[in-house]
Amino acid sequence: MKLPGMRAVVDEGKLMLVGIPVFLWTALPIYHLCLFAFSAKDSAFSGRLWPAEPTLRNFGTVFGQKHHFLVHFWLQLGNSLLIAVAVGVLTLLIATCTAFAISRLKVPGGRWIMNLSLFTYFIPAAFLAVPMYKAMGVYGLLNNQWALILAMVTIASPYSIWVLKQASDKLPYELDEAAKVDGATPLQLFRLVYLPLVAPSMVAIGIYALILAWNEYLYAFLLLSNDKDITLAVALGNFLAADDSPWELLMTTGLIYALPPAAIYYAFRRYMTADLTAGAVKS
Amino acid sequence: MTFRKTLLLGVAAAFAAVTALGFAAPAAAQEKLVVWWQKGFYKSEDDALFEAVKKFEAKTGVKVDLSLYAPQDMVPKSVAALDAGTVPDVAYGDVYDFQVASKWAFDGRLEDLSDVINPLKAGFAPNTAETAFLYNDKAKKRAYYAFPLKQQTMHIQYWIDMLKDAGIKETDIPKDWKGYWAFWCGKAQTESRKKTGQRIFGIGHPMGVDSSDSFYSFLTFMDAHNVKLVDDNGKLLVDDPKVRQGLINTVKDYTEPYTKGCTPPSSTSWKDPDNNVAFHNRTTLMTHNATISIAAKWLDDMNNATLPQTERDTAKKNYEQNIATAGFPNKPDGKPMVYRAAVKVGVMFTEAKSKARGKEFIAFMLQEENLTPYVEGSLGRWFPVTKAGQARPFWKQDKHRLAVYNQFMAGTVSFEFTKNYKFTVLNNENVWAKAVNRVVSEKVPVDKAVDEMIARIKAVAG
Predict the structure, then answer these.
(1) B256 close to B185: Cβ distance less than 8 angstroms
(2) Sign, CA torsion B385/B386/B389/B395
(3) Do B18 and A225 touch (CB under 8 A)?
(4) CATH of residue B388
(5) A133 vs B311: CB contact, 8 Å cut-off?
(6) What single DSSP character describes residue B172?
(7) Which of A187, A239, A244 comes nearest B297 by C-beta?
(8) Under DSSP, is residue A195 helix (H, G, I), strand (E, B) or coil?
C-alpha cells in the first residue's frame, strides 16, 4: 500500500484545522439543544457533558401540552405547518408560471421582471417589515394567517423565480418546438413538457420556501397576534417571559421544531444542492 | 382565449379574492376593543386577566380582542403599530416604563389618562402613580399619560444551606455596607471553597451590557452612595463635583467583586437569566435580582405536577428553607437603604380608535377585585401599586413575600426617566454597565470611565 506523501498529510492537516473548529462551532448549539431536552429540570445546568440520567419526560410535557406556555403546542405546530405548506405551494405556483412565461413563452418585459427580482436581493426582508405591516393593516389582514402567507410568498418569490428561470433556460427548446409541431397548446406545453422537466428544481424551490416560512419569526410575530393563530416559532418567544424560564422545555420544543425541516432537507438534499445552485451563474 | 389572457385573468381573479377576503373581515358589527397585553409568566396571571376581560365584556357588551405577547416583543410590536398607524386601544408591557413610555409621552403619542387616574389616586401607594405622571412636550404639560399596574424592586437572594455548610450562620452576615460585601467576597467565599473543594463564588454580580439586571443593580449601588443624577424637574446634576465623586465611589464598589475574583468571570457578559442560572446551580452563594424570580422558580417547581415527587420535595425545601430573600445592607453612610421601584405601566395611544371604551377598560382593570388577582397571580414576582393590594395577607404568607413587603414598606424612590425621559435612552444603551466594563475588561481607571459616562449622560440627556 502506498503511504500518503508529506504534502498530502500537511494539506489534510490544514483542512482538519479549519474543519474541526467549524464543525464544533456548528454542532455546539445542537448539542446544547439535545443536552437540555434530555435532562431533568434541575440537572440541565449541572455542567455535565451528558445527563447522568437522560429522560424523555420533557417530551412528554411538551406533547401533552402540560405547561402554561405549551397549551396550544399542537395547534401552533399545525399553524406553522399550514403556513409553511401554503407558502411553499403558492411560491411554486407563482415562480413556475413566471419562469415558464419568461423563459419558454418569451413574454415581453420578462427581462425587466428578472432584473427586478434580482434587485430584491439588495433589500433585507427586515427593512420591509413595517411597510408590510402597514400594507396588511390597509387590507384588513392583520392578525390573519393570510397576512403571513402573502408576506412570505412575497419574500420567497423573487429568488424562486430567478432560480427556476435559470433552470428553465437550460431545457432544450427543441422539445417545445417538437410539441408545438404536434399541435400542443401553451397550457399543454406547460403541463406535459415543462413541468416534468423542471420537477427537480421545483422540489428544491418548494422546500426553500417552506423552510423559509417555517423558520420565520419577525414577520410572524408582527403580523399575527392571537395565541391560537401564531406559529410555534413565535410561541417559543413566550418562554423568555422572565429571567427564570423553563429552559429544558424551551430546548425540547426547539428541538422538536427543528426536526421537520432537517428531515425534509435530508430527504431531498440531492435536489437542494443541485438545483438551488442552478441560478448561481448565468448560463 | 390565449394562454396569456387566461394567466392574466387568473392573476386578477386571485388578487380580487385576496382583497375581498381582506375587506370582508372588518364587517362584524359588534363593538370591539383591541387590547395588547404582556403574556404572564404563570397561568394564574393570564387566568386573572382573562377573567377580568370576561367580566368587562359581560358588563359592557363590548368584545375585547385580546392579544398576549412575550415581553421582548411588546416594544417592537407597539413601535411597528405606531409607525403603521394601527395601534391597539390599550397596551401593557413590562418594559414600557424602562424603555418607551416617557418618550412616547414626551412626543405626544399618548392619551392623557388623568380622568381615569385622578379618581383612583387616593388608593395608590406612595411613589407609584407618580411614574405615570409624565411630561408631554407637545401639550407642554405633565399629566397621567400612563396607568400604573404593578411594581418591582431589587432584592438579595442567598443560599442559607450553603452558608451553613461553610460553617457560617445567617446572623454572621454584617449589616453595614463595606462589611456586607467584604463578607460575601471574603469569609463566605473562602470558607465555602475550603469546605466543598468547589470553585464557588461569593457573589453573582450582573455586569453584562445587554442586561437590565446590571443597570438596575448599578443604580441601586448608586442610590446607596446617595447619588442623584437629576432634580425633580429633570435637570441634570452631573456637573456637581459631589455627584462625580459619588459615581466614582459607585463604580469602585460595583467593580470590586470582579477585581477581587468574587463573581464568575463570565458575569461581565451576563444577560438577565445568567445570574439566576448561576445561583440555581449553586455556583454563587448570593446574587441581587430585580424580582424574587429566583425563589419563585422553586415555588413554581414545588407546585409543578409534571415533576417527580423527589424534585418537588427538593424544590419545596429550597423555597421554604434553603433560600433567603433579603434587602440590601445599610448604605455607606449608615442609613437604611431606600429602594428604587420600577412601576410597570400601560398606555393608550393618541391614535387609539375607542378611547372612551379603552379608558373604561383601564378603570375596570384598576379596580381592586380585578387588579389584585392579576398581581397576586405572579406569586410574588410583582408587588401591588395600591394600598389595599399591599395590605393583603398574601404578602405575609411566606418569608420571601414578607421580605419583599418589608422592602417596599420602607419607602421607595423612582427612576430618573420619570423626570427626564432621555434616561430611557441611557438605560437602553446601558451606559452604567459600559462604564463598569471599561474598568474591569479594558482596565480604564475608574475616574476616566466615570468622566466618559458623565459625558455620555450630558450628550444624551443634557
Answers:
(1) yes
(2) positive
(3) no
(4) 3.40.190.10
(5) no
(6) G
(7) A244
(8) helix
